[in-house]
Design goal:
Chain lengths: 318, 293
């Protein structure tokens, strides 16, 4: 059976990206995850390469992003039409043009000045503020007198991008878990992958409906196992354009906790007829935690995003 | 000025055809909804570059919102009990150029009121929990239970009422925050779905309680939890009491409806002196009569 083309549309990554999506060659290169999401296919490798490339662009690792996109372009991914490949080709050309310009700029001080102004302008678009007393701050990149770690604006943007990526990955896995065409082995593997997105096995998913008083709360693994029993066929998920992302707050476990709220339409078809559809809004706790990485014998502190508790509210059903 | 108000009214209250409502429900209405109390704070404080502010400037480039307009739209437009002249007086007060007033997550004088369903001695009962954000000296944050209300917690209905009434309010000594047993600092965003841990982790119930004075009702609740007399069922609804604004108390509640004026909105507004606020803490939130709060 030909695997259906799973179109996942529209994650507005963050306002920074949307406001700076139109880059001139002298500006800091920005990736709009919204566009990248819209060219996802049923090929997991393709999706991963694109999402990672987007993250690398926003981290300023343009050469790495370039290589990842070339890898994606060379995959034997089957797409329903040529537009996803065309998009990747355009992105490869855009990065190439940018890298070429950077090379020229290194030898031309006038261009360097222009670039530094452009970068300053783009950083002013950040929406993340806070105080050093336990809430993440955007401007500093240091440990303050009380030992509370603060992060740069770029790091903050990266954390929010990572949070959205993890949620997007979770939604992909949820689709795979509930998809009728997934074998038991694939579904079980997907459940394990989904569990790895959380910082522990002790989180819960609370499911409620605006039409019912009852709220059900499941441990995450049990929630995924229940999804497997649903056995949907041809699942389509559409994301609302808007998402709310919170600041991160330091909790007693020394991890920073924040959350993302978004809205989705879920449609399952059978024999080209809609068998089930609903609208949900999900709130997902995102947890920022440190880990140490040893590079060439030197330990460095890094931060990664994991998921926490999830609240799913059903606002409409057919 | 009139033109600006018309534009603003169109922005927040425009009506849609039936066909449009479906799409609006998913995209536009979702963007306009005040999603959480954090979103409420951001709009109230007129914070720059928030997701909502950027959404409006992107999709409605002609509308230049002011702080006063944005706060005005944080009121539940369906509640006619909140008088217009009081709203105007409130707006003038909080947007005063010399002394503007703001509300924040880290403020010490705001409370969450959780209406919960529990089983008390296997019988369904209603329980109201009052929670507040607590900050440790190490600058960790968590939500903590600071008070409780229920018919089964009334002192005059208990045999041991004298024991409670004759003693001064018990003050829980400051203790370091448990690294494992705590309510997430963003628990409010997920409708306090982790508050059942207070009842499940019976031997660690004290870790979920605010470090400070405890009302007799809260002491009773802690005893009942430890004695396994109570099982938590669910949180039914939440409201927030904000007492920081000089001379005002506001109560924020959630309204989900297919309108732009939805989400976490001001549903009650009281003018209040300092003394009235202290009385409000005791009568409305059942906090012990201690100035510490």
């Amino acid at each position: 059976m030909k695997k259906p083309f799973l179109a996942v549309a529209a994650i507005l990554i963050c306002t920074v990206c949307s406001l700076t999506a139109q880059n001139s060659p002298t500006q800091n290169l920005i990736c709009d995850l919204n566009q990248y999401q819209s060219v996802r296919t049923s090929d997991y490798r393709w999706n991963n390469l694109l999402i990672t490339a987007c993250r690398e662009i926003n981290s300023g690792h343009y050469e790495t992003a370039y290589k990842l996109l070339v890898d994606a372009y060379n995959l034997d991914t089957k797409t329903t039409d040529g537009s996803p490949k065309e998009f990747v080709k355009t992105e490869i050309e855009r990065i190439k043009k940018f890298l070429d310009h950077q090379e020229k700029a290194a030898a031309d001080p006038a261009v360097i000045d222009d670039k530094s102004i452009a970068i300053t302008a783009s950083t002013d678009n950040s929406g993340y503020t806070g105080s050093s007393d336990g809430t993440l701050k955007k401007d500093d990149d240091a440990v303050d007198a009380s030992g509370v770690r603060t992060f740069s604006e770029k790091e903050m943007n990266d954390f929010h991008v990572k949070g959205l990526e993890k949620i997007s990955e979770l939604e992909d896995l949820i689709k795979r878990i509930g998809d009728k065409i997934s074998s038991t082995a694939i579904a079980e593997h997907s459940i394990e992958n989904a569990m790895n997105l959380f910082d522990s096995d002790e989180h819960f998913v609370q499911v409620s409906s605006v039409n019912k008083a009852e709220k059900m709360k499941y441990p995450t693994r049990k929630y995924f196992e229940r999804l497997r029993a649903l056995n949907y066929q041809n699942v389509f998920i559409e994301w609302a354009e808007f998402q709310y992302t919170s600041d991160f707050i330091l909790a007693p476990d020394s991890k920073y906790h924040g959350y993302i709220e978004f809205s989705q339409k879920f449609v399952a078809t059978k024999d080209d007829i809609i068998s089930y559809s609903d609208k949900t809004r999900k709130k997902v706790e995102v947890i920022l935690m440190p880990y140490t990485k040893t590079v060439e014998g030197k330990e460095t502190e890094n931060w990664d995003i994991f998921l926490g508790d999830i609240s799913v509210v059903q606002t409409g059903q057919k | 000025m009139r033109m600006m108000l018309c534009c603003l009214a169109a922005l927040f209250y425009s009506t849609k055809s039936t066909a449009q409502v479906k799409d609006d429900d998913f995209n536009i209405l979702f963007a306009f909804e005040v999603h959480t109390i954090d979103d409420f704070f951001e709009r109230f404080n007129f914070k720059d570059n928030t997701a909502f502010q950027n959404y409006v400037s992107k999709n409605y480039p002609g509308n230049n919102l002011t702080r006063s307009q944005l706060i005005h739209n944080l009121f539940n437009s369906k509640n006619l009990a909140v008088k217009k002249d009081e709203i105007n007086s409130f707006l003038t007060s909080v947007t005063d150029t010399a002394f503007p007033e703001f509300v924040n997550y880290r403020d010490t004088d705001w409370y969450a009121e959780l209406h919960c369903k529990v089983l008390y001695r296997n019988k369904p009962k209603k329980l109201t929990l009052i929670l507040k954000v607590e900050q440790s000296p190490q600058k960790f944050f968590r939500w903590s239970v600071v008070s409780a209300k229920a018919d089964f917690l009334r002192i005059n209905q208990t045999k041991d009422s004298l024991n409670y009434l004759q003693q001064p309010p018990y003050i829980k000594p400051d203790s370091t925050f448990s690294k494992k047993y705590f309510l997430s600092p963003v628990s409010h965003a997920l409708d306090f779905m982790d508050v059942d841990n207070v009842f499940l982790k019976k031997s660690h119930v004290d870790d979920y309680i605010y470090n400070g004075p405890q009302s007799p009702a809260l002491q009773k609740l802690i005893d009942q939890i430890k004695n396994s007399e109570i099982d938590f069922v669910e949180v039914i609804s939440v409201k927030y009491h904000l007492l920081k604004i000089h001379s005002w108390i506001i109560v924020v509640e959630y309204f989900l409806r297919n309108e732009k004026n939805s989400g976490w909105l001001i549903n009650k507004l009281f003018p209040a002196t300092r003394e009235q606020k202290e009385k409000y803490l005791i009568t409305a939130l059942n906090l012990p009569a201690m100035p510490t709060y």
